[in-house]
Amino acid sequence: MNRTTDVAVIGAGLSGLTTAKRLKDLGHSVVVLEASPRVGGRMRNIDIGHGVITEAGGQWIGSLHTRLLQLLDELGLATFETYTAGQTVYLRRGKRTTFAGTIPPMAPLALADFAQAQIRLERMAKKVPAEEPWTAPKAKLWDTITFGRWLDSHCHTAEARDMFDLGFELIFSESLHEISLLKVLHQIGTSGGVEFMMNTQDGAQELRVVGGTQAIADALVQDLGDGVVLNSPVTAIEQDEDGVTIRAAKGDVRCRRVVIAMTPADADGIGFTPPLPPRRAKLQRAWRNGLERKIFAVYDRPFWRDDGLNGSAVTDLPMAHFLVDNSPPDGSIGILVTFLGTTPNAAGAALDHFDARRSALVDDLVTLFGPRARDLDQYLEQSWIDEPWIAGVAGIRTPGVMTSCTDAGVVPIDRLHWAGAESSIEFESYLEGAVRAAERAADEVDRVLGGESLRAQ
């Protein structure tokens, strides 16, 4: 493969494929280079059997995710609601209760404590400019401390603090003591606020895609045809006065512009000529993605619904600290999903072993749903840190990165442009962010190529 094209897109995840589609729709020739043998990036379906799938990667959509919903409509894909009919289980310190709606039955003091901390966070978030968070009045201060440290100082009850830990560790897939407070405030301000980010009903986890999110990538590939090249990792990008040469496993691509739709950490494996500017180079070396793994318990049917339960749970158990019903729309098979991160818990090193994780999850599910939970059909895991070309899941910032690297994640470098969910100003690391970043990158490239054509005339 040696090709010449207007634009090369590196990375065939949601953002890269959407970028390519938008550019093709605008009349530009595009080649997409993907290192792995599949498209979709951090979207992937797991085949459960009997024609049923579950989503191993990004899967949820909320009402504020307007660009993604528009893309689904263009592709002819449908959504369905995450199952929430019935009661949610709340278990803390051995006491099990159930509740309806979105607010767990926390102690009154804990509810008030959570509310005061939420109000403070959202007031602070309003002071962080969406496009230039590093210019906030207290940006340097907020970027020197972690979100976990702020919660240590401003939550006065353990129950409220635990609820913040649970919700935001799921969002960022990492311990809150690893994440800059400035990064979290920016995310709150640009992703719909605390309640939208944490909730299923009327929140960011409200909808799923019929056929799984892998169906999005598959539909985009159909539109792009042989413009997508798999198993072709890029090793070098060389810019010169006339264009760009991309060195890839399956051959060279010569193009006018490049869109890199990868996390900064993943892009750091590419050699650049000329070298990247210091801020961008630093960003790629300092970038961190969350390290959680996604875990599924599969049953012959969603038996918890017989007891008026929706399969959701909020707990302090070692494995099933957060559960959601991930069954197919028709409920033909029962699937529960949870997440396991890197934060230490009571189980300690025992959860380093596959069999121990499976056993611990089953024990937790029996505690929550009774002895029928022991009759597990399948136990499945997806660990994104074990993927050869993907460095973890949701993007975070450790303290100091946002104020020192500023706009290096977005600003073009000569003929290089950046896409990927981590380069989106709004809804960063969400599927929505991937689409918004793609549309922004495609617009950038289209304006430049249009200007170059006019100058040539």
Can you walk me through this structure?
The protein is of the alpha/beta class and about 450 residues long. The protein has 3 domains: about 5-40 and about 215-275 and about 415-455, FAD/NAD(P)-binding domain; about 45-60 and about 80-85 and about 205-210 and about 290-385, Polyamine Oxidase, Chain A, domain 2; about 105-200, Guanine Nucleotide Dissociation Inhibitor, domain 1 (Orthogonal Bundle), CATH 1.10.405.10. About 35% of the residues lie in helices and about 20% in strands. It has helices spanning about 15-25, 65-75, 110-125, 140, 145-155, 160-170, 180-190, 195-200, 215-225, 265, 280-285, 355-370, 400-405, 430-455; strands spanning about 5-10, 30-35, 45-50, 50-55, 80, 85-90, 95-100, 205-210, 230, 235-240, 245-250, 250-260, 270-275, 290, 295-300, 310-315, 320-325, 335-340, 380-385, 395, 415-420. Strands 1, 2, 9, 10, 11, 12, 13 and 21 form an 8-stranded mixed beta sheet that branches. Helix 1 runs parallel beside helix 14 (about 430-455), helix 3 (about 110-125) crosses helix 6 (about 160-170) and helix 3 (about 110-125) crosses helix 7. It is globular, with a radius of gyration of 22 Å. The model has no long low-confidence stretch (mean pLDDT about 95).
